[in-house]
């Protein structure tokens, strides 16, 4: 099929490349000329495992092109809208002005029978509003909402092999939208991927609900870890034990510095704001507590650092391992790891932060911090090591080896991924969250 993807960020660039990989003829559009120039040259503008390979093969095949001109989307049968919906500057609601702009930009270029497919995460009610606009301005086209569930770090696989497909379609749709999307996702459909065809509101809410649930699960275990701290209990054993209950499950039950990134935090805030607009703020008021618990974990790690250094971090060299919000990504949006580095710096510590992929993005946001691209440089002479992003490289650090680099063997495991007994046996003072 001829496909356009409007917005080529973490979601759109992967989606465009994956659609071309599936054999479709794809044009990716973005207003950011630098991003488009990189993509056009076959270079991903961000780190995502597997993306360089499919981007290169798809651009070389001629099935994938990029442009900054929305007019180049004309002629596509399906237009995916994958622009950003960040938190608004002055409220906790989502800023959907980019979605509106992309939509308005598309209107003059919609062919007869074409389908606009929303992928961006939007407040419930957005699709119905845009569908009404479309009916008035370009009745030859129609709208579906197809929320995206990819995980950064696994985005290529998640796009090519999604665990479910959700299509939100208009009440008067005769099955055409679903059949077009089935064609787009034929490989996944043939592989037996569950597919749910529903109304607009449900499709929008599925995404909000999924993120709200995941965020709640993480904050739940972090709340348990706070109780573990004051009782001498071990939250990792607790998570293992409750995780064996299939109704609970062990995944997303790792206590630590909490969630971040360009989705979960802003999505639960936007959900709360939308529910308040709808007069049902009380139904999801608990998400404010989820957010509060999450943000408290960052301060908790800082408090542990202060305690580990005897009450003050002032002028102490601290190696911060990790700045991205999760491993296998260079994304530092709302990153707990980067926040911890900034908070420690604010307390006067000599912070040296390191990350396998995120240093450049972190430096752009927080140039006041000192960075090292190699972990060894950050560790050299440190009086405290703080692990805040669980990159494999940090999880597999050898305590004896690291011990020879640092000035003092003190470590805070902000992700509870190290084996305390191994580190203690190597002479380290180890502190985790909710671990005795
Ligand atoms: N990143 C993820 O893991 C993920 C997963 C699921 C859903 N989402 C959702 O997908 C959407 C995009 O997220 P992202 O992480 O890719 O954001 P992003 O900031 O990386 O990318 C958004 C892109 O849209 C472009 N853009 C803005 N206005 C435009 C316009 N009018 N025309 C063309 N391009 C325009 C920006 O230049 C940017 O490149 C958000 O709604 C997000 O919540 C993201």
Walk me through this protein's architecture.
With 436 residues, the chain is α/β, with parallel strands linked by helices. The protein has two domains: 2-193, Rossmann fold (3-Layer(aba) Sandwich); 200-436, 3-Layer(aba) Sandwich (Rossmann fold), CATH 3.40.50. The protein contains 18 helices and 14 strands. Strands 3-2-1-4-5-6-7-8 form an eight-stranded mixed β-sheet, with helices on both faces. A six-stranded parallel β-sheet has the order 11-10-9-12-13-14. The structure holds nicotinamide-adenine-dinucleotide. Nicotinamide-adenine-dinucleotide (NAD) binds next to helix 4.
Topology of helices and strands:
Layout: E1 2-6, H1 12-21, E2 25-29, H2 33-40, H3 51-61, E3 64-67, E4 78-81, H4 97-106, E5 115-118, H5 126-137, E6 142-145, H6 155-160, E7 165-169, H7 176-184, H8 186-190, E8 195-199, H9 200-231, H10 235-243, H11 264-277, H12 286-308, E9 317-321, H13 336-346, E10 350-354, H14 359-365, E11 370-372, H15 375-379, E12 384-387, H16 392-395, H17 399-405, E13 410-413, H18 420-425, E14 429-432
Parallel strand pairs: 1-2, 1-4, 2-3, 4-5, 5-6, 7-8, 9-10, 9-12, 10-11, 12-13, 13-14
Antiparallel strand pairs: 6-7
Bound molecules: nicotinamide-adenine-dinucleotide.
Nicotinamide-adenine-dinucleotide is lined by residues 6-12, 29-32, 35, 82-85, 98, 101-102, 105, 120-121, 148, 150, 152, 262-263.
């Amino acid at each position: 099929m001829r496909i356009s993807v409007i917005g080529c960020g973490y979601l759109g660039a992967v989606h465009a490349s994956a659609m071309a990989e599936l054999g479709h003829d794809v044009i990716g559009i973005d207003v950011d000329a630098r991003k488009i120039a990189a993509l056009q040259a076959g270079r991903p503008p961000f780190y995502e495992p597997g993306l360089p390979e499919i981007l290169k093969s798809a651009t070389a095949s001629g099935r994938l092109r990029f442009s900054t001109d929305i007019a180049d989307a004309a002629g596509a049968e399906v237009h995916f809208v994958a622009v950003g919906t960040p938190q608004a500057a002055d409220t906790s609601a989502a800023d959907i002005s980019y979605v509106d702009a992309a939509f308005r930009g598309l209107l003059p270029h919609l062919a007869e029978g074409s389908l606009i497919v929303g992928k961006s995460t939007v407040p419930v009610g957005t699709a119905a509003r845009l569908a009404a606009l479309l009916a008035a301005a370009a009745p030859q086209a129609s709208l579906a909402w197809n929320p995206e569930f990819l995980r950064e770090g696994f985005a290529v696989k998640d796009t090519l092999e999604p665990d479910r497909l959700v299509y939100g379609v208009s009440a008067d749709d005769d099955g055409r939208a679903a059949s077009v999307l089935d064609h787009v996702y034929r490989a996944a459909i043939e592989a037996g991927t569950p597919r749910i065809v529903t109304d607009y509101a449900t499709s929008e809410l599925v995404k909000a609900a999924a993120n709200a649930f995941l965020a709640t699960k993480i904050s739940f275990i972090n709340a348990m870890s706070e109780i573990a701290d004051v009782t001498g209990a071990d939250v990792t054993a607790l998570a293992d034990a409750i995780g064996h209950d299939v109704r609970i499950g062990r995944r997303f039950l790792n206590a630590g510095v909490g969630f971040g990134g360009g989705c979960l935090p802003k999505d639960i805030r936007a959900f709360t704001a939308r529910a308040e607009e709808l007069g049902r703020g009380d139904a999801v008021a608990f998400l404010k507590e989820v957010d509060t618990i999450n943000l408290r974990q960052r301060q908790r790690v800082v408090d542990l650092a202060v305690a580990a250094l005897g009450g003050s971090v002032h002028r102490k060299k601290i190696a911060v391992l990790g700045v991205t919000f999760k491993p296998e990504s260079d994304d530092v949006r709302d990153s707990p790891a980067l926040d911890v580095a900034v908070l420690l710096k604010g307390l006067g510590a000599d912070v040296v932060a390191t990350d396998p992929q995120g240093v450049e993005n972190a430096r752009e946001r927080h140039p006041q911090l000192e960075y090292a691209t190699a972990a060894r440089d950050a560790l050299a002479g440190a009086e405290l090591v703080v692990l805040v992003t669980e990159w494999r490289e940090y999880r597999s650090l050898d305590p004896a080896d690291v011990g020879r680099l640092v000035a003092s063997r003190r470590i805070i495991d902000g992700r509870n991924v190290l084996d305390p007994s191994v580190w203690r046996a190597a002479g380290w003072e180890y502190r985790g969250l909710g671990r005795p």
